[in-house]
Design goal:
The chain is of the alpha/beta class. About 35% of the residues lie in helices and about 15% in strands. The longest helix is centred in the last third of the chain and has 24 residues, at about 120-140. InterPro entries: UCP014543.
Amino acid sequence: MSFERINDEITERPEGKNCILVYGYNDNEFEKISSYTKKIGIDKILKIESQEVTLTLEDLVNEIKNNNDVDKGIEEKAIIFNAVSDSELHNFVQEFKTLNLNRPLFAAVTETSKKWKFSDLIKELMAEKKAFEERRKNKTKK
């Protein structure tokens, strides 16, 4: 997994369907996120259900839902961005706290990750989160 600094001055959207994938939120929370998403101009919000997490990000973005496998091992909340500008992503993440919802795992679909299963991406993000927390904890001990 690689990290790139977001340049909040880039307003051009990458090619593809402008949307976000939302996982792990209840209906009320999803509605809050949906309203917020419309307000900031992201075209579509897709709610990912537990029986869809074994689909690839590409299939989810294209709304091809032909799978009924369930991965019960994912309890994290996640918001995955597809074809959003750096500016939109930056603003979304910065202002998300105003919704008073638990902060999710955030990621963007890439050429590499679009072939991944949603569940694999979330597990990778969870492992990275844990590694960052360990590093932060070790730095504060010094």
